[in-house]
Amino acid sequence: MAQSSPQQVGPSSCGATIAEMEKILTDEEVERLIDASLDARRNAYCPYSKFQVGAALLTKDGSTITGCNVENISYGLTICAERTAVCRAVAEGQRKFRAIAITAEMGTRFVGPCGACRQTLVEFGLDWEVYLATPDKRYMKTTVSRLIPDSFSPEWVTLGERQEG
Ligand code: THU
Q1: Torsion angle, alpha carbons of 17, 22, 24, 28, to 10
Q2: Burial (Cβ within 10 Å: 0-12, 13-18, ≥19) of residue 92
Q3: CA gyration radius for the chain?
Q4: Nearest C-alpha neighbor of 147 from the set 105, 117, 104, 124
Q5: Which residues form the active site (predicted)?
Q6: Residue 123: pLDDT above 50?
Q7: Is it the case that residue 54 has pLDDT exceeding 70?
Q8: pLDDT tens, 137-153?
Q9: Which domains, ranges and CATH numbers included, belong to the chain?
Q10: Backbone angles phi, psi at 86, to 5 degrees
Q11: Residues having CB within 6 Å of any atom of ligand 1
Q12: 19 C-alpha to ligand 1 centroid (Å)
């Protein structure tokens, strides 16, 4: 077999490809996305928890769509910042995402999206970036597939093909 030249793969150790490398955000894009999520976070409606969360999606065509958490006196109706952003994006005709930044004040840690939000993100792809950030702009980078491994994803499920009986 012919010797091939070295190829950088990554950034993850779980099967990342050159295609994934091309999707990586520049430092400037990351900063802009975190800033957008921080702006959105100021609008959080969270009179019950007082826990403000902001989210900003970067679409494949380069637009930024934000969301914040919106709470309700009927607590279970609360909508997280991530889902607000995704619903807003879809309503604007956007379904292809490169990344999402999610910001909250978590001390030395980073906000971990709830299970419902993880499932909402995976609806729109496994292989895109998630920046979990704090108001002082420290961030941890991960991906949707790492947040929700072995997920129930449209990529694996074919509905309505095989009907028994
Ligand atoms: N929250 C989000 O908006 N996103 C998260 O990733 C974690 C939790 C909101 C929901 C609720 O308004 C508040 O934070 C406290 O749980």
Answers
A1: 160
A2: exposed
A3: 17
A4: 117
A5: 82
A6: yes
A7: yes
A8: 999 999 999 999 999 99
A9: 25-147 (3.40.140.10)
A10: -65, -45
A11: 46, 49, 51, 53, 69, 71, 78, 80-82, 102, 111, 113-114, 117
A12: 32
Q: Show the tokens assigned to 151.
A: 């997920």
Provide the β-strand partners of residue 103. Answer: 54, 133
The letter for the amino acid at 78 is T
CA of 48 from ligand 1 middle (Å) equals 11
Q: How many residues does the chain have?
A: 165
Q: How far is the CA of 114 from the centre of ligand 1 (A)?
A: 8
Q: Can you give the pLDDT at residue 1?
A: 47
Q: What is the pTM of this model?
A: 0.85
Residue closest by Cα to atom 10 of ligand 1: 80
Q: Per-residue pLDDT tens for 55-104? A: 999 999 999 999 999 999 999 999 999 999 999 999 999 999 999 999 99
pLDDT average, residue stretch 15-34: 74
Atom number, ligand 1, closest to the C-alpha of residue 46: 12
* Strand ranges, E, within the chain: 54-59, 64-68, 97-103, 129-133, 139-143
